[in-house]
Design brief:
Layout: E1 2-11, E2 14-26, E3 30-34, H1 39-54, E4 65-72, H2 84-94, E5 105-107, E6 110-111, E7 117-118, H3 123-132, E8 137-141, H4 145-148, E9 155-159, H5 162-170, H6 202-214, E10 218-221, H7 228-234, H8 244-256, E11 273-274, H9 282-286, E12 287-288, E13 293-294, H10 296-299, E14 304-307, H11 315-319, H12 322-327, E15 329-334, E16 337-342, E17 346-351, H13 372-377, H14 382-386, E18 390-393, H15 399-403, H16 411-428, H17 442-448, H18 456-466, H19 470-486, H20 494-502
InterPro entries: CHLI-like, Mg_chelat-rel, Mg_chelat-rel_C, Mg_chelatse_chII-like_cat_dom, P-loop_NTPase, Ribosomal_Su5_D2-typ_SF, Ribsml_uS5_D2-typ_fold_subgr
Domain Magnesium chelatase ChlI-like catalytic: 194-401
Pfam families: ChlI, Mg_chelatase, Mg_chelatase_C
Length: 509
């Protein structure tokens, strides 16, 4: 007898429904899984057999029984333990040990030897695929239910054991459908660092406000202890909250990466802040592997990627940022396939002025060897610097600022200005699929950024003095446009352009 039930396979950041075909026929004993199944799927034979035996059913180990499981379509690589439940139910149905109609149902879950169901990653993507395919139900392990229920329009049932699933399918004891979580109840968390707690560094805070308003990339340079890390850590507190569609994007990424909380709120409601160590590998930061997986660049999607001690990262890591900084995606090609991951993040990089950190310090002497400063700065190549919009120096904070008892401007006030500026950009870019100035390409720049004739001599002088590349020139215009938006100005004025020029790197002087 042959039956078909449905499961799902996550590939990249999307999922596809998989037909689990189970055929039982007489003959020499065989329990085989075919359909481009990897080792984890092949090992499921033993888990499934033990689980079926331990719930009191007849396991697929009869000497005169051939059990063939086909995972279709056969050209998609099948990996992970999520097929366990579907294969087990397919066998029980094909061997007449349970009766149910598999139409419209999708099954996900890893089986324990005792029949317990364990949560699996990527359930949100699988639930989306279930809905898109016109299915009506998805049955998942306990702990995955609230995540799957985020997708409206399908019934979600979560079970602790395969016995509960069988009882539900047979109508003996139905499982209550998991209610869809109220997304509106997810609020932005209290940020550990607020701008009001950071004394001094007025220019750096202004630069971060501009970066937040336009989605620009920033490089902070200053001596150790000047506050670069705390400034970067405070940046999420001035970013506007995620829109609902952005929440789903980020949540799907974290679900596939097995980084969601398995509780009643398995949802990323705030902008990510990723801070990889400078010893992180290329694969950890950009993503990769035999079967491509997202890295820190993708985990920072719609949020902030903070790279402290930027020049200390491996050169391959730094140079591989070229594509995501420009295209806001990461494309990884492997023998097993090619995957494109979203990587729309704000880069905040920090570095010391030299290896010892005291170059240019009026109080402490630099002890670096001759040429060491130049070598240190050359670790960041010109093409990478070209992709950074704002270069900011963070000098040592004076005692009077540190000892001052008054709070600075709070993040909430800055966030209000940032949100207002982004609303202006969103309205301006309606119909383009873009939301911030930093995303604009040549066509959008030509359509939405106009420079008065009176400002063109100033731009020409800046182009000649700074030796701006075409990319740097366009980034300068986008930064000036953001400063004008923060000021509520329809046109770019001379002060806006002059301030944008202040944030160009020293290397261009």
């Amino acid at each position: 007898m042959s039956v078909t039930v449905r499961s799902a396979q996550v590939t990249g950041l999307d999922a596809r429904l998989i037909s689990v075909e189970v055929d039982i026929s007489p003959g020499l004993h065989l329990f085989s899984i075919v359909g481009l199944a990897d080792k984890e799927v092949q090992e499921s034979r033993e888990r499934i057999a033990a689980a079926i035996k331990n719930i009191g059913a007849l396991a697929p180990h009869k000497k005169s029984q051939r059990v063939i499981v086909n995972l279709a379509p056969a050209d998609i690589k099948k990996e992970g333990p999520a097929f366990d439940l579907a294969i087990a139910l397919g066998y029980l149905l094909a061997s007449n040990q349970i009766r149910f109609d598999p139409a419209g149902k999708v099954f996900l879950g890893e089986l324990g030897l005792d029949g317990a169901l364990r949560p699996v990653p990527g359930v949100l993507a699988s639930a989306m695929a279930t809905k898109d395919a016109g299915m009506t139900e998805i049955i998942v392990p306990a702990g995955n239910g609230h995540e799957a229920a985020l997708v409206a329009g399908i019934a979600v049932y979560e079970a602790r054991t395969i016995t509960e699933v069988c009882d539900h399918l047979a109508g003996r004891k139905e499982i209550t459908a998991t209610a869809r979580p109220d997304i509106s109840s997810f609020t932005t968390p209290d940020y550990p660092i607020d701008f009001k707690d950071i004394h001094g560094q007025v220019r750096a805070k202004r630069a971060l406000e501009i970066a937040a308003a336009g989605g620009h990339h920033v490089l902070l340079e200053g001596p150790p202890g000047a506050g670069k890390t705390i400034l970067a850590s405070a940046l999420p507190s001035i970013l506007p909250p995620l829109a609902e569609d952005e929440m789903f994007e980020v949540t799907k990424i974290y679900s596939i990466a097995s980084m969601l909380a398995q509780d009643a709120r398995p949802f990323v409601a705030h902008r990510p802040f990723r801070n990889p160590h400078h010893t992180s590998s290329h694969t950890a930061v950009i993503g990769g592997g035999t079967y491509p997986r997202p890295g820190e660049a993708t985990l920072a999607h719609r949020g902030v990627l903070f790279m402290d001690e930027f020049p200390e990262f491996d050169r391959r890591v730094i140079e591989s940022l070229r594509q995501p900084l420009e295209a806001r995606t990461v494309t990884i090609a492997r023998t097993a396939g090619t995957a494109t991951f979203p990587a729309h993040f704000m880069l905040v990089a920090s570095q010391n002025p030299c290896p010892c950190g005291n170059f240019g310090n009026p109080v402490r002497d630099c002890v670096c060897a001759p040429g060491a400063v130049t070598k240190y700065k050359k670790k960041i190549s010109g093409p990478i610097m070209d992709r950074i919009d704002l270069y900011v120096e963070t000098p040592q904070i004076a005692y009077e600022k540190l000892a001052g008892g008054e709070d600075e401007e709070p993040s909430a006030s800055v966030r209000a200005r940032v949100t207002a500026a982004r609303d202006i950009q969103r309205r301006r870019l309606t119909g383009t699929g873009l939301t911030t100035n930093a995303e604009m390409g040549l066509r959008e720049i030509k359509a939405h950024i106009r420079i008065r004739e009176s400002l063109k001599p100033m731009l020409k002088l800046a182009h000649e003095r700074y030796q701006l590349s075409a990319r740097a020139y366009h980034r300068l215009l986008k930064t000036a446009r953001t400063i004008a938006d923060l000021a509520g100005s329809t046109d770019i004025e001379a002060p806006h352009l002059a301030e944008a020029l202040q944030y160009r790197p020293k290397q261009e002087l």
